[in-house]
Design brief:
This protein is of the alpha+beta class. It contains 2 helices and 14 strands. The strands form 4 sheets. Strands 3, 4, 5, 6, 7 and 8 form a 6-stranded antiparallel beta sheet that branches. It has a 3-stranded antiparallel beta sheet with strand order 9-14-13, with no helix packed on it. The chain is rod-shaped, with a radius of gyration of 40 Å.
């Protein structure tokens, strides 16, 4: 009886082994492994896409312009934001061609902004022009200056007034550059005397974009005529305005 029971048990075990083998064949294992590999590849691709969807700035700084909004669609190459270190600002200064010869790297620069009257930012020339281009009716070169902006009050994209100091002349007599005229190969100005204009040759020295030093030919307090729509003539009567 015991032997019969042992044989029956062994037969039952063999039957179970055959049944198990019939349930999982080699082809099913290969398919399962292939599906597992495909799932892993898809998971890796999803992780890469997720990582690529996170935009990281290449520099530390302040986001001062954001071009997109949440939910917007973007394409490769689209501008998303502008980031900069606003403690120092690069300023483009358009200098007229005749003045470019006096500009060099390292010269001091002062910047003013009409939105903040009375405030001045200072810096230095970082780069001089490599070409002259047309700007409206002017021929100019673009000078790049770097100015300190520790308080962050000077904003990107603003229009500012710039002065580059090539040298300093103490106690100089200066006039507006627009008052200077050239006639018969000499520099001069029209001086206002007794309600009429009189031509007076002058010797000029240092100049800026808007002013010029008069070294001889004028005295302190002399009144000069500024630029007019038509040429002035010697002795022509005028009505000066304050």
């Amino acid at each position: 009886m015991a032997r019969d029971r042992l044989k029956q048990a062994e037969a039952a075990i063999e039957a179970l082994d055959r049944k198990r083998a019939s349930l999982v064949v080699e082809s099913d294992i290969a398919v399962a492994k292939a599906r597992a590999r495909d799932a892993q590849i898809a998971l890796d691709a999803a992780r890469r896409r997720l990582e690529q969807s996170t935009i990281r700035s290449p520099i530390s700084g302040t986001v001062y312009s954001l071009s997109v909004r949440v939910g917007a669609f973007v394409s490769p190459g689209d501008e998303l934001a502008r980031i900069g270190k606003l403690d120092k600002m690069r300023v483009e200064i358009y200098v007229d061609e005749p003045e470019l010869g006096r500009v060099r790297v390292g010269l001091p620069v002062s910047i003013t902004w009409d939105a903040r009257p009375g405030q001045t930012w200072t810096g230095k020339v970082e780069r001089v022009p490599t070409e002259v281009v047309t700007l409206g009716t002017r021929q100019v070169g673009t000078v790049i200056a770097v100015v300190d902006n520790a308080n962050g009050e000077l904003l990107p994209g603003t229009n500012v007034n710039a002065a580059i100091r090539s040298h300093v002349v103490e106690n100089a007599l200066i006039i507006p550059k627009e008052a200077l005229r050239r006639r018969e190969q000499e520099n001069g100005v029209f001086v206002l005397q007794d309600g009429r204009v009189q031509w007076r040759p002058v010797e000029i020295g240092a100049s800026s974009v808007t002013e010029v030093q008069v070294m001889a030919g004028l005295g302190e307090g002399d009144r000069v005529a500024l630029a007019t729509e038509r040429p002035l003539q010697e002795g022509e009567p005028v009505n000066p305005v304050s």
